[in-house]
Amino acid sequence: xxxxxxxxxxxxxxxxxxxxxxxxxxxxxxxxxxxxxxxxxxxxxxxxxxxxxxxxxxxxxxxxxxxxxxxxxxxxxxxxxxxxxxxxxxxxxxxxxxxxxxxxxxxxxxxxxxxxxxxxxxxxxxxxxxxxxxxxxxxxxxxxxxxxxxxxxxxxxxxxxxxxxxxxxxxxxxxxxxxxxxxxxxxxxxxxxxxxxxxxxxxxxxxxxxxxxxxxxxxxxxxxxxxxxxxxxxxxxxxxxxxxxxxxxxxxxxxxxxxxxxxxxxxxxxxxxxxxxxxxxxxxxxxxxxxxxxxxxxxxxxxxxxxxxxxxxxxxxxxxxxxxxxxxxxxxxxxx
Length: 336
Known about the structure:
Elements (H helix, E strand, L loop, with lengths): L1 E5 L4 H12 L3 E6 L10 E5 L5 H7 L7 E4 L10 H10 L6 E5 L8 E4 L13 H20 L3 E5 L2 E3 L8 H9 L4 E4 L5 E2 L1 E3 H10 L9 E4 L6 E2 H11 L6 E4 L1 H6 L20 E3 L3 H6 L6 H15 L8 H15 L7
Parallel strand pairs: 1-2, 1-4, 2-3, 4-5, 5-7, 6-15, 7-12, 8-11, 9-14
Antiparallel strand pairs: 10-13
Helix pairs in contact: 1-6, 2-3, 3-4, 7-10
């Protein structure tokens, strides 16, 4: 097949391109750089994924059988209108258009099935609005013209080469026997998916005739609490975590940031829970989900050999821990 991958040079996309090449597909990647890491087997097309005209110009003279749209512009956002314009600008008689959405498209709530409604266009978070609106636009195309859409809704994706400072955030601290902050009571639920499983779902959707017109939750079957997640991260490297509970009011008061510095619990990890039910992806796409402990061990083996140099400053975390301990040491007095 002649396959276009929009994105394709980081994490999910990089692994997907390798999977497609291993199956002898003809691959083109579309992104904003003049180079890629795949050598001559992969054609390079340069365009802005948010600009349909630039995409049409970059792909002029080419034709495709399938598209993987996995790129999101984290700086500017990628709206539903932009995703729809991209989908309509791809030349060829497409048999698949696999769109990388997110569990965030549900907006909030637990144990979502694929047929649950998505977040409204007035949702306060741009990422949530954009993913939900993108799916609505693409499914509208499917219902109007049988556009061969498949959407994937992963939660937190982990694995080797993760560009987000997530599992590595904890391993960097555990290696140094640093205390690990648990925000609040640590009972917020989190759900994960191993990057290999997500790529396998994407790959299998290419030829599964029952896939078009459907969304797929792709995740571990069992959500975990934040406490359980930290315990699993520690177990993967043979450590016992030193847990320090820090009330969220202390974190907020000191300017703690779930999305970037100053972080206290891994990038984007301390978020209100959204979880999903998994069944369709196993039944329809024949994906066998990797146990969390197994995936973490494989990820740690990679990270232990390829950990990038980072400037680690623990002053903010020490400040939170100090305040939490001081607050815990103050006992209310009883007046008779």
